[in-house]
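Students often ask why inverse folding is considered easier than folding. One informal answer: many sequences map to the same fold, so there is more than one right answer. In these notes we will look at a single instance of the problem. The structure comes first.
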């Protein structure tokens, strides 16, 4: 049975907020920064410094910002002035993309492996392979894609077919690929003539990116009650996703979308440390500097005390809630989960179920198994700041310790 999805776009504390609703339940939030996000922007950057012992360079870009650039992960830099060698020197001009926004004390991460993302495909500079989303299981369709698009990859770039492409006409996908190739060529041509620090490509506002990146399967409505957002969405859809224009609606009512969908209350709950389960147990979710820690507690759960079936039932419900909370709060990086201790047989049942749950996440999430201490290890790809960092600031009294 297909999910019914809606994308809600509202104004929250003078910032655009997007919420994804699936079958009547909000499953993901994203709040735009007060300043425009630089994630995905492409710049002509200048090499400011090279630190050999960490195999990295620091680049200046934009209006004096500094970014981190891994030499190991970028063996083929894109120079604005062609060189005989790929060796980077101080003062060189590079065409780079912001791969990760700044996190706390860490500067933005820059890369020469530029990605240009469309609704159905991604052009990948430096990765010359042709790939298809692992979430598409139809092998016959995959084979037709590989045969049809076999000539599109070259020594400079490759392509990835996104999950949203499944079932779409190959001609429509090809048209988008041609647009992405033209965009990449323009960026390279412009980079030669632009001064260092210039922005060559600026990503659309976050709420428009959400329209492009949301799973299209089951998407029935893109809903906003802000006229400014509605006009920008109209312009974008007419230009790049005309087939989705019929899904865009301007909500006009004295009762705003924030209240209609109880968004403020659900945001508050998504920022709480403790999450209660229906069985009476609860999760404690604590983000730290290095990783996120999740603890499962029996709480008020009623059942046979110390009975293996009771513990398995609690852990399975906790696993389902955990997968939901990872997406809702946009928790990423390393995640350690301390489930209630069980026998090895039940641990395997739990891990198998958790594996199924995290595979449903649109963001790459990997279950690495259980450590010798009984902690479950998960990694989730970092793309943007988690929800608590988007909305909260560090307390000036306790400086983030939670104690005064």
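Output (designed amino acids):
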């Amino acid at each position: 049975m297909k999910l019914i999805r809606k994308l809600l776009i509202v104004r929250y504390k003078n910032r655009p907020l997007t919420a994804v609703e699936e079958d009547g339940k909000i499953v993901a939030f994203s709040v735009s920064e007060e300043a425009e996000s630089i994630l995905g922007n492409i710049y002509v950057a200048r090499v400011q410094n090279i630190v050999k012992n960490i195999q990295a360079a620091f680049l200046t870009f934009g209006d004096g910002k500094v970014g981190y650039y891994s030499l190991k992960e970028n063996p083929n830099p894109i120079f604005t002035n062609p060189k005989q060698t790929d060796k980077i020197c101080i003062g060189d001009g590079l065409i780079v993309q912001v791969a990760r926004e700044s996190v706390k004390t860490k500067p933005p991460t820059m890369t020469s492996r530029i990605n240009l993302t469309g609704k159905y495909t991604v052009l990948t500079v430096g990765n010359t392979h042709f790939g298809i989303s692992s979430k598409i299981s139809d092998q016959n369709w995959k084979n037709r894609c590989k045969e049809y698009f076999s000539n599109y990859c070259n020594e400079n770039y490759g392509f990835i077919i996104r999950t949203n492409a499944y079932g779409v006409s190959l001609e429509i996908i090809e048209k988008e690929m041609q647009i992405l190739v033209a965009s990449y060529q323009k960026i390279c041509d412009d980079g030669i003539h632009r001064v260092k620090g210039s922005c060559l490509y600026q990503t659309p506002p976050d709420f428009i990116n959400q329209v492009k990146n949301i799973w299209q399967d089951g998407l029935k409505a893109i809903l906003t009650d802000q006229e400014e957002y509605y006009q920008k969405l109209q312009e974008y859809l007419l230009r790049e996703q005309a087939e989705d224009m019929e899904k865009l609606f301007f909500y006009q009512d004295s009762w705003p979308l924030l209240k209609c969908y109880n968004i403020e209350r659900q945001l508050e709950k998504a920022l709480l440390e403790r999450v209660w389960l229906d069985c009476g147990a609860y999760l404690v979710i604590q983000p730290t500097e290095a990783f996120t820690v999740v603890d499962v507690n029996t709480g008020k759960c009623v059942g046979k005390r110390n009975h293996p079936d009771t513990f398995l039932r609690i852990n399975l419900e906790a696993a389902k809630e955990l997968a939901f909370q990872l997406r809702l709060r946009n928790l990423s990086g390393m995640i350690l989960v301390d489930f209630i201790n069980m026998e090895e047989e039940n641990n395997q049942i739990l891990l198998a179920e958790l594996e199924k749950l995290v595979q449903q996440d649109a963001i790459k999430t990997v279950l690495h198994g259980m450590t010798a201490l009984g902690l479950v290890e998960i990694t989730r790809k970092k793309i943007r700041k988690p929800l608590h960092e988007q909305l909260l600031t560090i307390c000036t009294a306790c400086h983030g310790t939670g104690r005064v």
